[in-house]
Amino acid sequence: MIRAAHRQPGFLAALLHRLSGLALAIFLPAHFIALGLALNGADALDSFLAVTRHPVAKLAEWALVIALATHMALGLRVLAIEFLPWRDRTAATVSACLGAALMVGLLFLLNAA
Amino acid sequence: MTAAMANEASAPLLDVEVWRGAAAGSFQTFRVPRRVNQTVLDVVSEIQRDQDPTLAYRFACRVGMCGSCAMVVNGRPRWTCRTRVALALGGAALLRLEPLRNFAVVKDLAVEMTDFFDKWRDAKGHFEPGPSPSEGFAVVPPASAQRQAADAGIECIGCGICHSACDVVAWDREYLGPAALNRAWTLLNDVRDRGNAARIAAVSAGSGCHLCHTHMSCTQFCPKGLAPTYAIAGLKRATVARALRRTR
Amino acid sequence: MSAALFIAQRLSAAVLALAVSVHLATIIYAARAGMSAADVLARTHGSFRFLALYAIFVLAVAVHAPIGLRNVLREWTTWRGRSLDIALGLFALLLLVLGLRAALAVFL
Fold this sequence. Notes:
A: mainly alpha, C: about 85% helix
């Protein structure tokens, strides 16, 4: 049940921005640790990366790419409102941000499958 | 039975859930006849006059000038005098009336406004003439950028709807809120004002303008069509400019 | 959030806008070319350019993420005050250390 006063695009934008940021903040340490495996040579990294060929892992990867693209696109909206004379037509802008993020996700999906 | 009474008797009825109590309480359901062009203020007034005189609510001008009648109608903060029942219902079956969110409830639909105006004061939302009277009249070209920025937010009448709509106010009780910050921005752009150093410091405090996350609920619901979001963005820029000047 | 934290947050955001764009483009390019870990590492080994880019990336992240998290925790939980700031300072340090280690890992 979403509060009636929340059914407006600015709130959706802020919520998605926040949730994607949280997801990224949780994921990043794991990402850094995984990359750090390269210290033990390419083989160590490869054997770890073998796990990532699993479809669930592929889905998670795609979700993270979308999270990153979404967080950046909506973040750019915030920067535009705060530092440029951007009189936000909120619904249109938020739609454009999410559309761009999904485009990036789609690009990734088409190339990574 | 007269024709009017017969009409009234067969008129469709409207179910209205009204908050009774203070912080603790419950909803009480009333029934009023539906009428053409009925406003929510019409409804709550009819309930109080004809059905339950103990119901507490506020109104004054009843023509959309004073902002006293603000409350939450079917989840949205509105002026009841300017809200047609038909519009407020949308597709819903009943009307639900609650006091403004983020305010302490005095009784039923009437809220305590003190904290709201305290934040106005804390944000330095008042004109500061300075230590000595100015010589002659200030020249303020209406088309100047600063005056236009002030004019964009000057019509605020302190009704509290933006404060009610704001999620950050709900999440952080210390947050100054869109109304106080919007007023601070109009004064920041008032070339006659001498208090801007203190004002920028006041809105740079821990729970100042930087907490705004551009949900834009304030702008969405302001009945005067103001945009506190952009006023707050202006304050953010002003605080950055000040910080950069200090590090020079 | 004070003015200082706000500036740090927005500044790091601007840096990340560039870094993330490059990173996303790189990911998609690598995925498209079907590169393996060894292929990727071959590009990053000994490349000062990649090291510099990722070091800046890590620094910006270590500033941006904890400040963002601070807002979320202060607003959505009852945790605030000194202990929160210290915990987030440690998180920033963690990101910095792990991140620079990872950048070095693909460089060396």
